[in-house]
């Protein structure tokens, strides 16, 4: 999720409510079984704390009405609420918005903490602090970092590439387990090599022998076969999801009217040489599909690829990239940056890398590739949103047409 510092809408709502009727501020501390609610009418006023069963929406709305009567507010008084981003996701935000409550989701890492002593931590203390912070936030103070809520469709689209990554990690874990169990008995059998069919792998397993020529212990064979079944299941799921992703992009390239904006942008990204289906789909669903950026600084900041300076008096140094943005996009862009240097050698970004790195060692190249990743991400943003092809970059259609042009 990305962060938004634009509080104009919230400030306008707060100003409007102050000129008509006092507002009710609400903070939710969420847990599995209980929601703790904190109500107040000002940043320094008394906080009313109530508990409701988790996900009991009717009881929640009743407590809101009770709080309005308790603080002698009008029944149509404006309600501003907040809760911390976490496992519950965004469905509570959508429920609150449907009920006319102005809600914001808070990045927990942005909540200020005292460093002079150990901080007490209870749900009651947290909800008190949070309700006062949301009151200050609505008054215009920059005390919270607000999480931008994606549309429901965009949230669903992100599931496919994320699940693919999860399954590939699990497949690698199972492969390592199989190899490790066989290595303990002097057998090297890698399921990733040779494109094993089920009967082929099992046949090789039955033929495997220990150092003294004896068969593998039955317990080892049983565990390896168990892991192999898991491997085959996950391999099938990966193929199914990959096929689904390719089909979605194929329809988007044909400008299917049912294609979503993220799918169209992913198809657009794949026109560039060096950007494949997997990378394009992740960038579109995680980054470009539903977010809007005002400038290049916002693009780099959301990916966590901007520098973090440290300056005090005469001393100053750079602490490296902030790593405060989307880790999936940041990790992907570093991989794409290496591919970009190889597949787009005449682009401006690739030329910049060669001019600034020169004969530097591997450490210098690893530092410079982060700058390449940031520059490339900004160029991809201009390409997707404004149709500007990166300087010196080649489209896949141009590469495909080169042999025909030479023959002619």
Can you describe what's shown?
Helices cover 54% and strands 12% of the residues. The chain has helices at residues 8-20, 57-70, 91-98, 123-138, 152-157, 159-183, 198-207, 218-253, 261-269, 277-288, 296-302, 327-343, 348-357, 362-386, 396-407; strands spanning 3-4, 24-30, 34-40, 48-53, 79-84, 102-106, 146-147, 307-312, 315-321. The protein has a seven-stranded mixed sheet with strand order 1-7-6-5-2-3-4, sandwiched between helices. Strand 3 (34-40) and strand 4 (48-53) form a beta hairpin. Helix 10 crosses helix 12. The two termini are 51 Å apart.
Number of DSSP strand runs: 9
For the biggest β-sheet, the strand order reads: 1-7-6-5-2-3-4
The overall average pLDDT, rounded, is 88
Overall SS class? alpha+beta
Ranges with pLDDT <50 over ≥5 residues? 1-8, 11-20
Strand content: 5-15%
Fraction in helix: 40-55%
Shape: globular
In angstroms, what separates the terminal alpha carbons? 51 Å
Rg result: 27 Å
Biggest sheet descriptor: 7 strands, mixed
Helix tally equals: 15
What's the SSE pattern? EHEEEHEHEHEHHHHHHHEEHHHH
What is the gist of this entry?
The protein is of the alpha+beta class. Helices cover about 55% and strands about 10% of the residues. The protein is built from 15 helices and nine strands.
């Amino acid at each position: 999720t990305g962060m938004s510092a634009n509080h104009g809408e919230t400030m306008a709502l707060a100003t409007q409510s102050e000129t008509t009727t006092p507002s009710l501020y609400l903070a939710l501390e969420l847990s599995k079984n209980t929601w703790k609610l904190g109500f107040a009418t000002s940043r320094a006023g008394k906080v009313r704390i109530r508990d409701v069963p988790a996900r009991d929406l009717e009881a929640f709305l009743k407590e809101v009405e009770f709080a309005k009567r308790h603080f002698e507010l009008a029944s149509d008084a404006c309600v501003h609420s907040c809760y911390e981003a976490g496992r519950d996701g965004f469905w509570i935000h959508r429920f609150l918005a449907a009920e006319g409550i102005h809600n914001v989701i808070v990045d927990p890492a942005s909540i200020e903490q005292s460093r002079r002593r150990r901080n007490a931590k209870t749900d009651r203390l947290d909800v008190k602090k949070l309700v006062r912070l949301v009151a200050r936030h609505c008054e215009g103070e920059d005390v919270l970092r607000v999480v931008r809520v994606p549309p429901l469709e965009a949230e669903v689209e992100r599931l496919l590439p994320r699940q693919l990554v999860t399954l590939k990690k699990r497949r690698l874990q199972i492969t390592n387990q199989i190899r490790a169990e066989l290595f303990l008995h002097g057998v090297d059998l890698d399921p990733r090599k040779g494109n094993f069919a089920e009967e082929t792998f099992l046949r090789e397993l039955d033929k495997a022998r220990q150092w003294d020529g004896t068969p593998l212990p039955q317990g080892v064979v049983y565990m390896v076969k168990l892991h192999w079944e898991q491997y085959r299941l996950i391999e099938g799921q990966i193929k199914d999801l990959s096929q689904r992703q390719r089909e979605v992009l194929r329809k988007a390239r044909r400008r299917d009217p049912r294609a979503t904006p993220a799918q169209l942008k992913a198809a657009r990204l794949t026109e560039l040489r060096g950007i494949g289906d997997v990378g394009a789909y992740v960038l579109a669903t995680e980054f470009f599909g539903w977010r809007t950026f005002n400038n290049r600084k916002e693009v780099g900041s959301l990916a966590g690829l901007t520098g973090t300076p440290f300056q005090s008096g005469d001393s100053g140094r750079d602490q490296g990239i902030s790593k405060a943005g989307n880790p999936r996009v940041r990790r992907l862009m570093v991989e794409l940056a290496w591919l970009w240097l190889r597949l787009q050698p005449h682009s401006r970004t690739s030329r910049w890398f060669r001019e600034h790195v020169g004969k530097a060692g591997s450490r210098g190249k690893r530092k410079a590739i982060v700058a390449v990743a940031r520059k490339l991400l900004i160029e991809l943003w201009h390409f997707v949103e404004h149709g500007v092809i990166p300087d010196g970059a080649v489209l896949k259609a141009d590469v495909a047409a080169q042999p025909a042009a030479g023959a002619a």
